[in-house]
Design goal:
Keywords: DNA-binding, Transcription, Transcription regulation. It comes from Chryseobacterium terrae. This is Helix-turn-helix domain-containing protein. The protein is mostly helical. The chain folds into two domains: 32 residues; 98 residues, Winged helix-like DNA-binding domain superfamily/Winged helix DNA-binding domain (Arc Repressor Mutant, subunit A). Helix content is 67%, strand content 9%. Strands 1-2 form a two-stranded antiparallel ribbon. Strand 1 and strand 2 form a beta hairpin. The protein is flat. The model has no long low-confidence stretch (mean pLDDT 89).
Length: 131
């Protein structure tokens, strides 16, 4: 009977831990998930500040999607939109210090992406040489 009770407690702890991890990953994906958000942040960290500069750096993104993603990044506290009145009106986007909290994530993704590309490339080459 004691073993059954211990298993129940272990299963509950495992389920709670799993739930915590799933919630955390879900929150992360909500804030920076999708094809473009991290790419926009990376482009901005490299100096792109104006809408057209960001769009040029993040190849393939449409103006409508970029506008939407910038609004979401602003809503989640990663960037701020600065509007300078004058003629013409000047709009720049600036990374907030909070965006630096993504540095480890971006570094890990970069490392994994390089490793994955090399793996896929070597497997593709190996398949070709077998034919």
């Amino acid at each position: 009977m004691s073993d059954k009770k211990e298993n129940n407690l272990e299963n509950r702890a495992f389920t709670e831990e799993c739930h915590t991890v799933l919630n955390a990953v879900s929150d992360t994906l909500y804030a920076v998930g999708g094809k473009w958000k991290l790419m926009i942040i990376i482009a901005m960290a490299r100096g792109s500040k104006r809408f057209t500069e960001i769009q040029r750096q993040v190849s393939g993104i449409s103006a409508r999607v970029l506008s939407s993603e910038l609004k979401e990044l602003e809503m989640n506290g990663f960037i701020i939109k600065k509007v300078e009145n004058g003629y013409p009106v000047s709009i720049e986007y600036e990374l907030l210090p909070y965006s630096q909290t993504l540095e480890e994530v971006v570094n890990a993704m970069t490392k994994w992406g390089i490793q994955h590309r090399a793996k896929v490339k070597s497997e593709h080459t190996a398949k070709k040489s077998k034919k």
